[in-house]
Write a structure and sequence with these properties.
The chain is α/β, with parallel strands linked by helices. The chain has a single domain, classed as Rossmann fold, CATH 3.40.50. It has 10 helices and 10 strands. The strands form 2 sheets. Strands 6-7-8-3-9-10 form a 6-stranded mixed β-sheet, sandwiched between helices. Strands 2-1-4-5 form a 4-stranded antiparallel β-sheet, covered by helices on one side. A hairpin with a 2-residue loop joins strand 4 and strand 5. About 40% of the residues are buried. The model has no long low-confidence stretch (mean pLDDT about 95).
Length: about 230
């Protein structure tokens, strides 16, 4: 059953058009990946879904409600949380205080501070540390935990693996099943194609603002994805 339906989305930055007739769907309980090169429009899609980019046409429906024209803070309260590229923590706040900012738009739900610490146990030990003085991988865990404390139905993840060591990335991705078990679907933007395929039920490949390939992740080979990714 669809949780998120994006239909014929076109997004603009002034006179520049970034997305052209994009349609994307995420069913309840799914992990869906958006792959593509830099500038393909992946992050633009997330900004449109969350209401940050308001120059758009088409339709975005979430949990049976039309959120196309809704403002960002109201969309968050509907049950969409984002883990932004670059994490965007408050450097002067502690790990725990950064986590608790996620409760500002929280829905009723089962995610609590203790459950975030259960998901990422190392955060409990550094809960009082300033977020600017922890590792990049730990900061990414804080960003995910912050998003989960809003008790979302849909978690948007923008380039989780960017700049992180492979072992740290593996540790983070290993928690996806636990997140989905608690009723959270995931829409993942990722440049690492093989990691996206391994983590996802379905994928969409973007090329220059358009969907160049879509379908069940495990059904595509590397050559087919490469052609869609690079337009060759």
């Amino acid at each position: 059953m669809p949780l998120l339906e994006v239909d014929n989305l076109q997004v603009f930055y002034g006179d520049f058009q970034a997305l052209f007739g994009v349609s994307v769907k995420v069913d309840k309980g799914e992990t869906v990946s958006i792959i593509g090169a830099n500038g393909a429009g992946k992050s633009t899609l997330l900004r449109a879904i969350t209401g940050i980019n308001r120059e758009k046409t088409g339709r975005i429906q979430f949990d049976s409600a039309d959120i196309t024209a809704m403002r960002a803070h109201l969309i968050a309260r509907c049950g969409i949380s984002i883990v932004p590229e670059g994490r965007r923590l408050f450097p002067s706040l502690s790990v725990e205080d950064n986590l608790l900012t996620g409760t500002a738009t929280a829905r009723a739900g089962e995610w609590t501070l203790d459950k975030v610490y259960d998901l990422f146990p190392m955060l409990r030990a550094i809960r009082a540390h300033p977020s600017a003085r922890i590792s990049g991988g730990q900061q990414q865990m804080v960003a995910i935990g912050r998003a989960l404390l809003a008790n979302p139905l849909l978690l948007l993840c923008d380039e989780l693996s960017l700049g992180l060591a492979p072992k740290v990335i593996n540790d983070i991705y290993a928690q996806f099943d636990h997140i989905r078990e608690r009723g959270v679907s995931i829409l993942l933007v990722e440049q690492d194609v093989m990691r996206a395929i391994a983590a996802s039920d379905r994928i969409y490949c973007f090329l220059e603002g358009r969907v160049s390939l879509q379908g069940i992740a495990k059904n595509f080979g590397v050559d087919e994805i490469s052609r869609a990714y690079f337009g060759t």
